[in-house]
Design a protein that fits this description.
Elements lengths: L1 E5 L4 E5 L1 H6 L11 E5 L9 E5 L19 E4 L3 E5 L3 E3 L2 E4 L4 E5 L5 E3 L4 E4 L7 E7 L6 E10 L3 E3 L9 E4 L8 E4 L9 E7 L2 E6 L5 E4 L9 E4 L8 E5 L5 E5 L21
Length: about 270
Amino acid sequence: MIDTKYPSYGDYAEYNVTNLVKGWKSGTYTASLGFMIKSSDESNINNAKAFDASESAYSNVQPYIVVNYRPLIYLQYYLLNLNEGESCSNLAITVPVTAVQWTSSDPSIATVNSSGVITGVRASATPVTITATALDPYCQASATCTVYVKIPDGTYFFKNRATGLYAEPSGYLEGNEVYQWSFGGTPTQRWSVEYLSNGVYRIKNQMSDLYLAVESLYSTSAKATQYSIASDLSRWYISRTSSGAFCLYAKGNLSSGYVIGSAFSGNTNGT
C-alpha cells in the first residue's frame, strides 16, 4: 500500500499497488501522469504500468512515491592492534557508493588520514575509536574501528624515572618481591614483554621465569612481586605519557590509576 499526500488538499489518498498490478493496463497512461513500474524491457510502453491521477478520487493531482532508505557502510577491520609508528589501511565499502570521512577520537594516540590509513602514535591503556562516515547527501551512515596502540613484544629494562633505578626481583621464587637496583644489565633486570589483546600485556622476568605482579589490587601499599599463574594481578596495561615515559597499570587497577611505581618505597637499592 502506498499513501500519497496532496499538499493542495492536506489529505492523503491510497494507491493499492497489488490491486493495480492485478488489473494491469496496456500502457494507456504516460509517465508524466504519475509513476511507473517498469520491466527489464523498456522498449515499449506496454511493458510498464503507470499509476496516474485517474486512480485516485482527486483527478487533478499526480501521485508520487517517497522512498526512505538507510545507506550501509562496511569496514575491512573493526579491531586493530598497532605498534607505535605502525600503519594499516582500513577499507570502507558503502552502499550506495559515496564518499567517506574518517575521524579519530584521539589523534595523540592514533591518527587516520582521508584514505583510511590508521597510524599508531603512542602506546595507551585506552583504545581509540576510528569512525568512518558515509557522506550520503540524504542520510549518513557510520561504522567504527577500535584501535589499541601498543609497544612491540621484546626484552625491556624497567627504569624508575624518579630514582634512576631498575626493577629486579629479590629472588627466583614465586612471591619474591620486586625491588629497584642500580643498572647491571643482568638477566635479573631483563623483562620479556608479551602483548595479549585489548591493550593487555604480561611481563616475565628472564632469570626467574615468573611474571611481574602486584600483591593485591586497589591498594597504594601493595608490593610488586612475581607469580607463575597469570591473573589480573600479573596482567598489565602500558601507556606512554606525553613526556615519553611509560606507566604500568596492573589490569585491575586501571580505573583507580594505581601504577607500579607506587610499589617502590624509596630511592635506594633494595627498596
